[in-house]
Amino acid sequence: MQAVLKKDKQEQEKKLIAVMIAMYRSFKEREMDDDELDELLLYSTKRIESCLYRKNGEKKPFCNVCPVHCYKRDMRERIKKVMRYSGPRLLFKHPFLSLKHLFKTIYSKKHPPQSPKRCILR
């Protein structure tokens, strides 16, 4: 049952990223072309799937309050641009998704996660 819940949360995070990138795609004055946005979506999905918190069975925070920066610097800048544009607009296009994300972010900020224990793979 717990594995199903983790998978569901993972799918919700992927959906949120996909929705935000789709909203940014419709922005006329965007700085990224479609290929860069496709690359960003694939990269973000891969990062969500390979999160250190998820691997260790710990409670995963949203990336903006995470103490571990697993995104490469250029990808982090790209996703910030997407989120700066899409974040405020998300409330009007997808209110339920937006409010759910907002409450979880506030909770994560009030209860910051500890750095995950790294697994040593041999």
Can you describe what's shown?
The structure is a single chain. The chain has 122 residues and is mainly alpha-helical. The chain has one domain (2-110). Helices cover 66% and strands 0% of the residues. The chain has 5 helices and no strands. It has helices at 2-25, 34-49, 52-55, 73-93, 95-110. Helix 1 (2-25) runs antiparallel to helix 2 (34-49) and helix 4 crosses helix 5. The relative contact order is 0.16. The mean pLDDT is 81.
Write a compact overview of the structure shown.
With 122 residues, the protein is an all-alpha fold. The protein has five helices and no strands. It has one domain (2-110).
User: Taking all residues together, what is the mean pLDDT?
Assistant: 81
- Computed structural class: mainly alpha
Q: Helical amount among residues, as a percent range?
A: 55-70%
Question: How many discrete structural domains?
Answer: 1
Enumerate the spans where pLDDT stays under 50 for 5 or more consecutive residues: none
Residue fraction in strands? under 5%
Number of helices: 5
User: What is the rounded distance between the termini?
Assistant: 29 Å
Main sheet summary: none
Overall geometry comes to: globular
Radius of gyration: 15 Å
The total count of strands amounts to 0
The string of secondary-structure elements, in order, is HHHHH
